[in-house]
Design goal:
Elements: H1 2-31, E1 45-46, E2 51-52, E3 58-60, E4 65-67, E5 72-73, E6 78-81, E7 95-97, E8 102-103, E9 108-111, E10 115-117, E11 128-130, E12 170-171
């Protein structure tokens, strides 16, 4: 009896697992954000053929974010303009992602003033791009208590045929 029940339970678990995976794949497509979706219409611009794959980790102050055409933003990505929901930002757009870009899964793009990602830029997974950095001039004072200088944000010029942003770098604001 024991071997038979394990065999039946194993087959049942496999079928349930297949059903859950099938449902998840379909629901992920339905829940993705596109230019015609209710969530997509909150953005400053959302180009045709572009998509933010489900699930998105965080989308904040979308009206200050512009996404070009035919751009794919992977799942578990955080896109943010400003530090708090509803914040009035100083520039429009705060974050601009060009045409035909690919932002890898788990990445974060957090703009406070201006980030401009050009056309045809691809990133790997877990890339972090921000225009805000923390002061670290005095090693005797915790970083959290030092100033956070506003500086021009990172800009990409577009596709570089020699490569793309690989997995897990942090792209910070310009120094000095």
């Amino acid at each position: 009896m024991g071997a038979v029940s394990y065999s039946i339970r194993g087959r049942m678990m496999a079928r349930v697992g297949d059903a859950v995976a099938w449902c998840w794949e379909r629901l992920s497509v339905i829940a993705s954000v596109g230019p015609k979706s209710r969530r997509g219409r909150r953005f400053g611009a959302f180009g045709e053929g572009s998509i933010i794959c489900f699930p998105a980790t965080s989308l904040m102050n979308e009206r200050f974010i512009e996404i070009g055409e035919n751009t794919m933003i992977g799942p578990h990505v955080a896109l943010s303009a400003g530090m708090a929901p509803g914040q009035e930002c100083l520039s429009q757009p705060v974050v601009r992602i060009g045409d035909r870009c690919l932002i890898g899964r788990g990445s974060g793009i957090v703009g406070h003033f201006s980030i401009d990602i050009g056309d045809d830029v691809w990133t790997g997974h877990h890339v972090y791009i921000t225009d805000q950095n923390h002061g670290y001039d005095n090693v005797d004072i915790p970083i959290s208590q030092q100033s956070m200088p506003e500086k021009p944000g990172p800009k990409t010029k577009g596709y570089d045929p020699s490569g793309f942003l690989l997995n897990a770098p942090a792209i910070l604001s310009e120094s000095g």
